[in-house]
Amino acid sequence: MIIFISGGARSGKSSYAESLCMQLARPGTPLIYLATARPLDAEMKQRIRRHRQGRARCWQTIEDGKDLNRVLKHCARGSIVLVDCLTIWLSFLLFEEGLPVVHILAKARRMLATARQKQLTLVLVSNDVNEGIPPADHEVARYIYALERLHRLCVAEADHAIQVVAGQVLSWKGEQRWTGSEA
Question: What are the catalytic residues (predicted)?
Answer without folding.
Answer: 51 (gmp-histidine intermediate)
